[in-house]
Design a protein that fits this description.
The protein is an alpha/beta fold and 192 residues long. It is built from 6 helices and 7 strands; from the N terminus they run βαβαβαβαβαββα. It is globular. The chain starts with 9 loop residues before the first strand and ends with a helix.
């Protein structure tokens, strides 16, 4: 399937590190006629990210950036973003923390999906924390990215009930389904 680029769609880069289920979901969303975005670039910090296969399937340019030297890595990324005239960055399971300088250059144009009801459980192991703390609810949040980890203004959230029988894995699976609904909805909220 070839990507369709609308004339006025916002050129978007998606940053990934893993399976890329949110990436795939965002690509499918971007192809819809009424979607405000087009996905023009996929960036990964590892060549082992399974999600990179979607760059071939959907004919989207990909760049794999080594983060051994963060400053050099971010310089390279910024160059690609400028060349492709990218106006929005969607972080989708990107496991590197971007520097304050990088974020400043794209202020208000970087969003992230996080698997917890922020401000609760920033960082990793969110499902484990929710279960260990006997929380009644868990969920996911889409937020603007700031220099402070998982602390930017929340755009939208989706909440689910944690059942007694839920494990870290069953909870993760249920929340991922919600993430796939939430990310496009949050983008529509910003741009429509």
């Amino acid at each position: 399937m070839k990507k369709l680029i609308g004339l006025k769609k916002i050129k978007t880069a998606v940053f990934i590190s893993g399976k890329g289920s949110n990436l795939k979901n965002l690509i499918k969303f971007s192809i819809k006629k009424n979607s405000p975005i087009s996905i023009n670039l996929i960036i990964s910090n590892t060549r082992y990210a399974k999600g990179l296969k979607y760059s071939i399937k959907y004919n989207i340019q990909k760049k794999i950036i080594n983060f051994k030297n963060k400053k050099i890595a971010e310089k390279k990324i910024l160059k690609f973003l400028l060349t492709k005239k990218i106006n929005l960055i969607c972080l989708a399971g990107f496991m590197k923390i971007l520097s304050k300088n990088f974020i400043k250059k794209f202020k208000g144009k970087i969003i992230n999906i996080h698997p917890s009801l922020l401000p609760k459980y920033k960082g990793l192991n969110t499902h484990k924390k929710a279960i260990e703390n006997n929380d009644k609810f868990a969920g996911c949040s889409v937020h603007f990215v700031t220099a402070k980890l998982d602390s930017g203004k929340i755009i939208m959230q989706k909440k689910i009930k944690i059942l007694k029988r839920d494990t870290i894995y069953s909870l993760a699976k249920k929340i991922l389904k919600k993430e796939h609904l939430l990310y496009p909805a949050a983008i529509n909220k910003i741009y429509n």
